[in-house]
Every structure is written in C-alpha cells, then in structure tokens.
Specification:
The protein contains 24 helices and 10 strands. By secondary structure, it is α/β, with parallel strands linked by helices. Helix 8 packs antiparallel against helix 9 and helix 20 packs across helix 21.
Amino acid sequence: MKIKLRKSVVFLLMVTVLAPIGLYTDNTLGSHFTSSSSRNEFLEDVSTFESSTTLKEPPDVVFSENSTKSTSDDTSSRITRQLTEESNSIGNGGKNQSLDGNPIRQVIDKAVAEKGEENPMAIKGLSRKVEPQKLQRSSQISGKTRTKKQNEQTVPSDARICQLKDQLIRAKIYLSLSSTRNNLHFIRELRLRIKEVQRALGDATKDSELPRNALERLKAMEQTLLKGKQMDNDCSSVIKKLRAMLHLSEEQLRAHKKHALFLTQLTAKTIPKGLHCLPLRLTTEYFTLNSSKRDFLKNENLDNPNLYHYALFSDNVLAAAVVVNSTVTHTKDPLKHVFHVVTDKLNYAAMKMWFLANPPGKATIHVQNVDEFTWLNSSYSPVLRQLGSASMIDYYFKNHRAESDSNLKFRNPKYLSIMNHLRFYLPEIFPNLDKILFLDDDVVVQKELTGLWSLDLNGKVIGVVETCGESFHRFDRYLNFSNPLISRSFSPRACGWAFGMNIFDLDQWRKQNITQVYHKWQNLNHDRLLWKLGTLPPGLITFWNHTYALEKSWHVLGLGYNAGVAQRDIDRAAVIHYNGNLKPWLEIGIPKFRSYWAKFVDYDHVYLRECNITP
C-alpha cells in the first residue's frame, strides 16, 4: 500500500513538473508560426536579444505609401530583411559566425524554412519587395552624398582669407579707439597678431595657398579681438570709425582709378619699341632701292570709278597692312579693288616700302604723302589753323593740371594730327571718284564688302552703323548742349554713330557742299566750347540728316575697350573695330580679341623678326 502511494506521488510530481514544460514548448514553438501577433512579439524579443549582444547597426526602414498593409506582410518583410542581413554577415568573411551558434536563431531559420516549403512563392515575393526598399535606401544615401558634395562646392575657395582680412579691419579699429589705445599691453599684443595674420596672408588668393599655421593665427587673433571687445563694447564708436575707413577707402579707390586711367592713356600714346623700329628699318631699305623701283604698278586703276576704292589714312605701317591684307583675303576678285593709303612724311617711305615688298596680290595700291596736298593749308582748313594756334599749343604742351580736362583722352596727340581730319576732305583728295569706302587703321575685315557699293543711299551722303542701342551713344554725350548754338540746332537724344567703316557718296557730298558745313562748325568751335577735340563730334554735326543707317552686322565696335562684346556679334560682323585705347598691337590690348588681328600679320617676316615683333 505504501509502495503504491509512493509511486502515485512520484507520478503526480513528474506530471506537475513536466506538464508545464511540454505545454510551454508547444505554445511557443507550435503556435509561433500560426499566430501572427505572437510571431511579432517573438521576433521583437529576438531582435532585442540580438541587439543587446552584438551591437549591430539598426536596419534602415523605409516607409512607403503602402505602409498600412496587413501585419503579416510587415512580418514577412521583417523576416526577409533579417535573412538578408544574416546572409550578408555570413558573406563578410565569417565576421558574424558567433550568431550561427545561437539556438534561437536556429529555431527561426528552421521555422522560416518550413514556411518556405509550404509556400515557396511567398519567400520569392518577399525578396522582390525587399529589392525596391534596398534601392530606395541606396538612392537616399547617394542623395545625401550629393548634397554634401554640393555644400562643399558652394563654400568659397577664399573663405578663410576673407575671414583673416575682416579680422585685420577689426584690429585696425581697435588700434584707433581711445579706450583700447591706452592699454599698452593690449596694443602690443594686437600689433603682434596683425603682423602674424599679414604674414600668413602674404599673396595668397585661395585658402589652399595659406600656410599650415593660418588657422592658429586666426584663432589667436580672434581671442585678442575678444579682449578688445570687452574693453570697449560701444558700437557707435566702432560704426563711426568704420564709416571713416570706408570714406578713406573710397577716396583711395578714386585716386587709383584716375592714376590707372592716366597710365592707360599714356600707354595708348606710346609707340612700342618694335613698331618704332619697323618704319626705321623700312625707310632705310626704301632709300637703298633704285629710283625706278620705288613706284607701284597699275596706276591706271586709281581713277577708275567702276572699281572698288578704299581710303585708308594711317601712320602705322603694321596696322595698315592688316587692313589691306584682311580685305583682300575676303574679296572674290582682288583685281577690281584699289587701296588709297595716305600717310605723313615721316612714315611715307616706310609705308611705301612695305607694300612694295609685300604687294596685296592682284589688288592695286597707292601710297600718298599728306604734305603733297598743297591745297590743304591753314588758309583753307580751319582745323589746321586751330591746331597751330597759341591756345592749342598751351593746352597740349603746358602743364596746367588743375585746369586740364577730366577726360584725358582728349589730350591724345593724335588730335593734333591732320591725318585724323582727312576724312572730311574726301572729295578733294579723290576728285574723280563717285563712291569710296573709308576704313580706319584699327579695323579687321572679315567678309566681302563689295555689297556696300550697290546700296542705294537714298540721296544720303554717308552710310553708318548707328550706336544708340547703348544709352550713352547719343548726341548729348559728345556735344555741349548748354551752348545755345548746339541746343537750337540738334536734339540731345539723337542717335549717334561711328566712324571706322563708312561708305561715302562723293557725288552727293559735292552737291550738298558738305565740306563747307564742316568748315562752318569748325570756325564756331575755335575755343572748344561746342565740343572737345576729336572727329566724331564734328562728324555728327557735319552729316546731320545726311546719314543712311546700315545693318549692324556691317560694323561691330568696342573691341578696343569692351571685353564683353558678344562672340555671336563678332562672328557675324563684316568689319570688327578696335576703337578705344586697347589696340591689338599694344600689350594692353584685350587678349581674347587680339587673335582676330594677329592672324593677318606674318610674324615670320624678316622685318618683323629684326624688330622683335612677336604675337
């Protein structure tokens, strides 16, 4: 009886101990994969357990618009994501091999495998869902990288340099304030910091050019400036000092601009050494020639009105050569083109020798000396009379800086030369011609120009390209409208135009007696009260209501002063004009425009090599 009772007690104890174990195991493992809610709780427990043991980076979760799907889809996505991470960890050289021995992980793997055997398409579908999420995460990461790079690119390359310069300005302010000036220790330290920052800046223009200790200098200066701020925190005194410094800087800037303008004008007046050497070399060569070889051929073409005639007035041999070469290069029939070059007696032999040695192909060329125009004298020409007057000599050759013109360009010696005024005497110079094309010596021809002779000017005297597209190229820019003679006769808003490439109807010139109009206004301007020196102001007056507007593509200006001339306008232009001080044969010429002129110069020519004239 006791034995039976003992066995029953032992059996009940075993049932009491083993039954909960069996029930627990069955509930946790058997029902885990059938109940989605319990499965979610288990996976969360597992994730918590793993994160506490391995310190892995939490997986990226991307929420899409379909994030409100069923719980089973979310759970499946989580299981697949964990599987993907597990496979990645196995592929990384066994770094996460410690996870393989995790019994809970083994149970999950086995359960997923069983789930996959029951519904293999589910796993494939889940893997397809994971791919867009991975792509979305990668696109987000790449987008962040691009944004970071863009932020780095927006940082100026001289940001630290600007910061150092700002510190120097602040330091100079503290040096001049009375509250800080009395602290000798602070002033000594501040001056030391200024020297250090100036030494660090040097000639650097980018942060990459700064020395390694620049950042240390910047921090040290900032600490010293903070001390100064503690001594004097009065903003009003700092503002006053900043205003004074700004005013001084503006005054210095104006002085530097005026000095730079003076130097530019001086450079424009100066003849480069090579261009001074060239006419001397050519003149020597000319007088060694036999007298029978000093004349040009085809003189019968000079007065033929059926040919295309060009007028070129210049004392610059190389510039004249470029004009002739560029024109001939773009003509279809050079035999029908005649070039009339007029120069002064100083350059006559050199100009003639150049074209004797370098004839312009089949075209005709003729060089004349302005001193041979005996009819052009002070009794006939008012401008010649004025150029020799005492007031003009006093204006040019005496030093009255206080009374001098604000615009220094009017003091250029070219305005003393009659060569600049010969354009007003074309009918007298070429009495047998009906039409002629005038070209300045600072132009380059890029297209055929014969179409200009066939234009009907409608009774006008001169064909011009108007320049009033820009607001300052109007009559009030060139003429003195405070004088009643000007204000009564012309409109201040009348459109201006430019010399440089102009077709002249000499028959209409003679009929309308344009030369006498020019003489009339030159006599009225004897004291330079109507306009300053130059040829454009008297040209605007002389040819008032006698101009025919040409298309702008015939003549593009500004290459001698405006670096912003549009490339499209240059490419379309028949003639480009280097008007201004920045001539292409000078070192101060605009570099990007120089090639249009230089390609018509043969720098391998023996005369140019001897005079060291290079591109």
